[in-house]
Amino acid sequence: MSENILTGAKKVTNKATLWYVPLSLKNVNKVVEVPPIQYARKEQEDEGKKRYEEQKLDRLETKQRNGDVILPVINPDRQTKEPHTVGYSQSSLIHLVGPSDCTLLGFVHGGVTMKLMDEVAGIVAARHCKTNIVTASVDAINFHEKIKKGCVITVSGRMTFTSNKSMEIEVFVDADPFVDEPRERYRAVSAFFTYVSLSKEGKPLPVPQLLTETEDEKRRFEEGKGRYLQTKAKRQAQMQQQAAQQ
């Protein structure tokens, strides 16, 4: 919630559902059972089960995409690339995981990872639009594997879809545990971020159309369009439901 301290008016600014799993204190690789909770109403339990099944399907879809690779782009020659293409705005960030990034058990805080992902997605969006940009929504950040202290993580983002007023950026986090373990790099986190373009006055601006060049880029664009239409329909249904309740 945000509050205008002059007028006292309050409004909802952010809303999300976060999913956690409990790990054993003796073995952090072991997931333990969640104690049941008492619901005030049967409807609460039914709504929770529905959200659980929806996010479960989202995670299955994301796992199927974990073979995808975004090659790290640290110093690209953007002058050789066509503006508004995937390659032109594609961006990467490399970060060494230190003690301040981690929990007491030595694993990265989820919020640290989300911040880095949002930064990379914002860079991609800004390079595509060349305007002010803001995060509109995040579609299910999935933490596939834990990231330990001492890992080098590569956060990579690419534009997948644009509508008239918004753009979708896919972000991967790959971890390289080069200090303690002789393990290969692995996919740790993935998500889709939606951004909008704003004028200096904070008003929405049209988003330049994404130019797809390869078959994979065209496929990802169509998949992004499907997610966009699905999200749009869901929001319209929620608005209609809220209007009916008033």
Automatic annotation (TrEMBL):
Pfam families from the UniProt entry: 4HBT
Biological processes per GO annotation: acyl-CoA metabolic process; fatty acid catabolic process
GO MF terms, alphabetically ordered: carboxylic ester hydrolase activity; long-chain fatty acyl-CoA hydrolase activity
Record flagged with keyword Hydrolase: yes
Keywords assigned by UniProt, alphabetized: Hydrolase, Serine esterase
GO cellular component, one term: cytosol
Biased composition (Basic and acidic residues): 216-226
HotDog ACOT-type domain mapped to chain residues: 87-201
Domain of life: Eukaryota
Keyword Hydrolase belongs to the record: yes
Protein name: Acyl-CoA thioesterase 7
